[in-house]
């Protein structure tokens, strides 16, 4: 399922982020295509901005998406709510769910396949991730741009930057989202929810091109990556 209902505040003014264009094609279409390319994926459920469901249906209809079954539901006010609403639209017989940000348009199919394969092999929750390039500090946040005291410097070799798609046994993911309705937890990804409620999450290799388009510079990088792919293999 593809949460695509965010505003994209950090990207700046304009259309909702999922509908912003990369190489002339909306980010959402890239992301859905990236999933649809995987033989592991049979159905894609998109959580669209609530006011944009009809627009998203028309948009996806107008692009060739490898003959996959695509459904669109209205998303919610938070990413977590959008995922929960999307999950509810997945037929009961589907046992494995991958959750993939519309904001990660360039994820290679190998990453999608690897995540799906790890769930199929028995993991209940799988995240793709890459090692960090920067040193990371734990700080005491301050307001107004004041210097922030450093509390700790975690060992970078054991840290990973986590991407999507994140893959789950459907019952595990659904149970975590249901439980979060009555026991809210502040996490920023689906695997975080599973972890908080005692689930076991494992990491498989991600890919540097699976980065999230969050700020304007990310879009510049995404355009460059796409141009390189188009030049090299007619992508
Ligand atoms: N209410 C929301 C918020 C986010 N998302 C989705 O979750 C993914 C990751 O979120 P993020 O990159 O933070 O997107 P935005 O929330 O749009 O960005 P921002 O925080 O800058 O507004 C995106 O595909 C986004 O569309 C969603 O489906 N519903
Ligand atoms: C799910 C995610 O992409 C994993 O890195 C990330 O946590 C989303 O964060 P955002 O602040 O909602 O973009």
From TrEMBL:
Xref: SUPFAM superfamilies: Nucleotide-diphospho-sugar transferases (SSF53448)
Reactions that this protein is recorded to catalyse: 2-C-methyl-D-erythritol 4-phosphate + CTP + H(+) = 4-CDP-2-C-methyl-D-erythritol + diphosphate
Role description: Catalyzes the formation of 4-diphosphocytidyl-2-C-methyl-D-erythritol from CTP and 2-C-methyl-D-erythritol 4-phosphate (MEP).
This protein's record includes keyword Transferase: yes
InterPro entries per UniProt: IspD, IspD/TarI, IspD/TarI_cytidylyltransf_bact, ISPD_synthase_CS, Nucleotide-diphossugar_trans
Descriptive protein name: 2-C-methyl-D-erythritol 4-phosphate cytidylyltransferase
Site location (Transition state stabilizer): 10, 17
Coiled coil: none
GO molecular function: 2-C-methyl-D-erythritol 4-phosphate cytidylyltransferase activity
Keywords (A to Z) from UniProt: Isoprene biosynthesis, Nucleotidyltransferase, Transferase
CDD domains the UniProt entry points to: CDP-ME_synthetase (cd02516)
PROSITE patterns listed in its UniProt record: ISPD
């Amino acid at each position: 399922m593809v949460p695509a209902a965010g505003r994209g505040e950090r990207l700046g003014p304009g259309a909702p982020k999922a509908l912003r264009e990369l190489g002339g094609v909306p980010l959402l279409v890239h992301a859905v295509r990236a999933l649809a390319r995987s033989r592991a994926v049979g159905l894609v459920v998109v959580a669209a901005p609530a006011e944009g469901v009809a627009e998203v249906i028309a948009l996806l209809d107008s692009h060739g998406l490898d003959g996959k079954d695509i459904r669109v539901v209205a998303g919610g006010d938070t990413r977590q709510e959008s995922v929960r609403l999307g999950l509810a639209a997945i037929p009961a017989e589907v046992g494995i769910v991958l959750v993939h940000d519309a904001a990660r348009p360039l994820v290679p199919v190998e990453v999608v396949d690897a995540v799906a394969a790890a769930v199929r092999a028995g993991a209940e929750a799988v995240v793709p991730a890459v090692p960090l390039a920067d040193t990371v500090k734990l700080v005491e946040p301050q307001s107004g741009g004041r210097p922030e005291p450093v509390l700790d410097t975690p060992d970078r070799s054991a840290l990973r930057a986590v991407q999507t798609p994140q893959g789950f046994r459907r019952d595990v993911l659904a149970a975590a989202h249901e439980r979060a309705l009555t026991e809210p937890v502040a996490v920023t990804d689906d695997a975080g929810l599973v972890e908080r409620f005692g689930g076991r999450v494992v990491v498989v290799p991600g890919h540097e091109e699976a980065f999230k388009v969050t700020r304007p510079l990310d879009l510049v990088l995404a355009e460059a990556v796409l141009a390189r792919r188009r030049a090299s293999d007619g992508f």
